[in-house]
């Protein structure tokens, strides 16, 4: 090969390289031009889920910043002078412990611990499944938690292979969660004046069970009777003061009848047991006549707060992501708890109103403009019938309609609405219900209803406390058969009828007599000035998937300015959970003086506490 040939070969290679460089440069230029010519990408549409995630991120960031500053600032700047608590002030005044005290917690506030469970609960023996500082660990396995907190649907007792029991002692209900106290502050202040284990007791019980079942399974009523008798003797024969809260109020009312009833139904203490051992019953936030929010819990597994969250992020709870179906699983669990049925409104239309009348007529929920009277102490000798707690409203709310399907059904006169007849329910329940085999195993009793039956329940109808029970018997017949063997929600015409000796009536103050204990005292202490759920506007759920709940609160329904209707919920006065009607009626009217419900004339006192938010 000659040198000339070698040089020509090198030249050809260089030319090829130059051509490739030119081509690549041209291609690069063309790509840049194409990108410049392409239209700019449109911003993604902002979804409700994005808003929810943004809010959560904002709250978390704010929390971490506050935590950071809290640890960085000098201690002298963080120290806030605290006012002495009531226990310290009472001690300075020379007061000391006198009567033994028994605390009776309400629903969901008492701790529950695991004694036997499924494989998913390994490592949780005697750990809190509910309440207290450690129960948050179970939220790492939520489906396991729901399974273990559920009771047997037919019996209302333990499912096979699961044993969950109440946490005993004062620690059972002092804190619900870290930083959220229930009885802790009261216990601490009582300790300042000399209370301790020998004269202060927490009557722990499994709040999921019916009241009589707490005795059948755990002997909770018998243990409470023995404890009160022991405290009475060991404290110099001083009578006991009971302090029940919320649902614990009707649980203790049941106990007062049980303890004097002969065995085997009762505790065999005899007619004079209460007069001998009980000094006073100081009811805190009493739910004597039930709470409307128990209705929404059983009917659609939601309430005011859940409905608002659902409106903010409708896709979160209703989505099929991971197959959670949150509401359906919660309803499946809640309908096994007989305690919720105990909180359904009692007294029927006589107490809660009918389609066109209710005791709260003339009240509104603009509490910021409401003039509150000073906290008052009312006894049997004081007549406060002229005291008005409300003020006029633009459009009257028909509170007697506990459930209305659609806003027109909540405001129109009853003559313009279709009637909700109990005969229709009983007739339909046997002819139209069917098992929806295409959806597999039924999760709730809604899965055993036909679509036509579900639509017939709605159909622009409204339900009072009387027809509401018929409605629940129709949509959840198994639950109501089980629960109504333990509870009654009516009002007695003749309390001397022998049927009222049965334990199913003992927790209803309108179907039982107080004990013959004229020296005993009953206090009703509750909050006022907070909008409290009273009735609901519902709609058919747009979700038609298998195992879904067919009804939900219509959070798009609102009233005019100054109206009590907001987000599909009508509000009345109360402490945010219990309406004043339920908390105060028995002390103000039903038990006042010698009545058929209070034949021995036990003294009753009312203490109303105006809500004072922190400033």
TrEMBL record:
Pfam family, any one: LCAT
GO BP: lipid metabolic process
One MF term in the entry's GO annotations: O-acyltransferase activity
InterPro entries hit by this protein: AB_hydrolase_fold (IPR029058), LACT/PDAT_acylTrfase (IPR003386)
Alphabetical keyword list: Membrane, Transmembrane, Transmembrane helix
Record field: transmembrane: 46-70
Name by which UniProt lists this protein: Phospholipid:diacylglycerol acyltransferase 2
Organism, as annotated: Gossypium armourianum
């Amino acid at each position: 090969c000659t040198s000339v040939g070698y040089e020509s070969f090198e030249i050809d290679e260089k030319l090829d390289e130059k051509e490739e460089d030119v081509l690549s440069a041209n291609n690069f230029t063309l790509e840049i031009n194409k990108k410049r010519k392409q239209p700019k990408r449109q911003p993604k549409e902002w979804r409700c889920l994005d808003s929810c995630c943004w809010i959560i991120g904002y709250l978390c960031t704010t929390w971490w910043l506050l935590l950071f500053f809290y640890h960085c600032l000098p201690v002298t700047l963080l120290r806030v002078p605290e006012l002495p608590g009531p226990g310290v002030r009472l001690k300075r005044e020379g007061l000391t412990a006198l009567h033994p005290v028994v605390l009776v917690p309400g629903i969901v506030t008492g701790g529950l611990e695991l004694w036997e469970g499924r494989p998913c609960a390994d490592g949780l023996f005697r750990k809190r499944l509910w309440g207290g500082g450690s129960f948050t660990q179970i939220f790492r396995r939520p489906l396991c938690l729901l399974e273990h907190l559920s009771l047997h649907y037919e019996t209302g007792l333990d499912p096979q292979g699961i044993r969950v029991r109440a946490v005993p002692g004062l620690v059972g209900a002092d804190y619900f969660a870290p930083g959220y106290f229930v009885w802790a502050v009261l216990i601490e202040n009582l300790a300042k004046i000399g209370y301790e284990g020998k004269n202060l007791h927490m009557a722990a019980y499994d709040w999921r069970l019916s009241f009589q079942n707490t005795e059948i399974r755990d002997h909770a009523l018998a243990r409470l009777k023995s404890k009160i008798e022991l405290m009475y003797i060991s404290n110099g024969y001083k009578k006991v003061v009971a302090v029940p809260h919320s649902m614990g109020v009707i649980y203790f009312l049941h106990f007062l009848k049980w303890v004097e009833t002969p065995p085997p139904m009762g505790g065999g203490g005899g007619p004079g047991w209460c007069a001998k051992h009980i000094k006073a019953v100081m009811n805190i936030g009493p739910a004597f006549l039930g709470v409307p929010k128990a209705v929404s819990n059983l009917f659609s597994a939601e309430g005011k707060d859940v409905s608002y969250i659902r409106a903010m992020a409708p896709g979160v709870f209703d989505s099929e992501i991971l197959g959670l179906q949150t509401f359906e699983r919660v309803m499946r669990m809640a309908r096994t708890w007989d305690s919720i049925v105990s909180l359904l409104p009692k007294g029927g239309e006589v107490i809660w109103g009918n389609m066109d009348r209710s005791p709260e007529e003339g009240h509104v929920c603009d509490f910021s403009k409401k003039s509150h009277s000073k906290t008052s102490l009312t006894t049997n000798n004081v007549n406060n019938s002229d005291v008005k707690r409300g003020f006029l409203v633009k459009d009257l709310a028909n509170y007697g309609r506990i459930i209305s399907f659609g806003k027109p059904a909540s405001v129109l006169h009853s003559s313009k609405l279709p009637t909700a007849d109990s005969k229709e329910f009983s007739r339909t329940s046997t002819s139209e219900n069917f098992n929806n085999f295409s959806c597999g195993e039924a999760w709730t009793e809604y899965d055993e209803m036909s679509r036509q039956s579900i639509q017939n329940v709605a159909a622009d109808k409204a339900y009072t406390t009387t027809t509401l029970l018929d409605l629940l018997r129709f949509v959840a017949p198994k639950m109501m058969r089980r629960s109504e063997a333990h509870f009654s929600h009516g009002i007695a015409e003749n309390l001397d009828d022998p049927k009222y000796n049965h334990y199913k009536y003992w927790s209803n103050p309108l179907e039982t007599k107080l004990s013959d204990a004229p020296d005993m005292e009953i206090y009703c202490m509750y909050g006022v000035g907070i909008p409290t759920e009273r009735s609901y506007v519902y709609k058919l759920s747009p979700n038609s998937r298998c195992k879904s709940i067919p009804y939900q609160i219509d959070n798009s329904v609102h009233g005019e300015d100054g109206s009590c209707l907001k987000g599909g919920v009508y509000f009345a006065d109360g402490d945010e959970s219990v309406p004043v009607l339920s908390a105060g009626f028995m002390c103000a009217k039903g038990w006042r003086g010698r009545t058929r419900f209070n034949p021995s004339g036990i003294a009753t006192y009312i203490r109303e506490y105006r809500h004072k938010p922190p400033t």
